[in-house]
Design goal:
Blueprint: E1 4-8, H1 15-26, E2 29-32, H2 33-43, H3 46-57, H4 63-74, E3 83-86, H5 92-104, E4 111-116, H6 119-128, E5 129-132, E6 138-140, E7 159-160, H7 167-181, H8 183-190, E8 194-198, H9 203-215
Parallel strand pairs: 1-3, 1-4, 2-3, 4-8
Antiparallel strand pairs: 5-6, 5-7
Bound molecules: BIS(adenosine)-5'-pentaphosphate.
Length: 217
């Protein structure tokens, strides 16, 4: 079984949706830098204050801050059972720092999953996305509706729209994806680690494909 996994893809490709199901199914530690920043903003910590303006504009939080929080989390004992990195790395310096760290702590990356998706579909998904205020589970107003309108199926929390899910911030996020993050696909392809999947397929079908990959079937 593959146990140390990176999940990549443009904003709205379905990383969070797949990550939440995969970590439950395979008992992996979910490390989502986006969730870590949003939790810090909610808690009003120094990290949250620093990250907030970057996130709301759609900009990337500076590398040294992001690398610092991932290093700290990845070195914790529970990550020995396997981890899924969701939204990290997003820049070449982040990928290089991760490569050094994974050698240092002897937790090598087994696979990099890239979920690909075209721009029109990303815009449709992001503009209709709603997330649970309490647990962060993602929904969509047309394609992934909760059983009860406005209420999370998993924890009963209230659904809301993310502050960075607006037209202006999305353009900035997509541009960072193209300029800063897409070059990582070649970086990981050259290391023989990259597996790309079509994010346009249904969420259940994609989950089945990723499950097979992780089980080594
Ligand atoms: P982050 O939270 O990582 O956001 P993102 O990468 O923009 O990705 P999203 O969460 O928007 O989308 P997703 O791919 O998870 O899609 P989802 O599953 O929700 O980062 C937020 C911000 O934090 C960044 O902009 C940056 O400022 C900062 N940050 C984070 N990491 C950083 C880093 N490493 N360095 C610097 N800064 C960093 O799905 C989207 C919608 O589509 C949902 O409505 C869902 O229901 C629907 N959907 C999902 N799958 C399907 C499907 N197969 N078919 C139909 N609909 C689907």
């Amino acid at each position: 079984m593959l146990k140390n996994i990176i999940l990549m893809g443009p904003p709205g490709a379905g990383k969070g949706t797949q990550a939440k199901k995969l970590v439950t199914g395979f008992n992996l530690i979910h490390i989502s830098t986006g969730d870590m920043f949003r939790d810090a903003i909610k808690a009003g910590t120094e990290l949250g204050k620093l990250a907030q303006s970057y996130i709301e504009r759609g900009d990337l939080v500076p590398d040294e801050v992001t690398i610092g929080i991932v290093k700290e989390r990845l070195a914790q004992d529970d990550c020995a059972k396997g981890f899924l990195l969701d939204g990290f790395p997003r820049t070449i310096p982040q990928a290089e720092a991760l490569s050094e760290l994974s050698k240092e702590i002897k937790r090598p990356i087994d696979v990099v999953i890239n979920i690909d998706c075209d721009k029109d579909e990303l815009i449709r998904r992001i503009s209709g996305r709603r997330v649970c205020k309490s647990c962060g589970a993602p929904y969509h107003v047309e394609t992934m509706r909760p059983k009860v309108e406005g209420v999370c199926d998993l924890c009963g929390g209230e659904l809301m729209q993310r502050k960075d899910d607006n037209k202006d911030a999305l353009e900035v996020r997509l541009s960072h994806y193209v300029h800063d993050t897409k070059p990582l696909l070649d970086y990981y392809a050259n290391l023989g680690l990259l597996k790309t999947y079509d994010g346009a397929m249904g969420s259940e079908k994609l989950f089945d494909e990723l499950t097979k990959l992780i089980k080594g079937e």
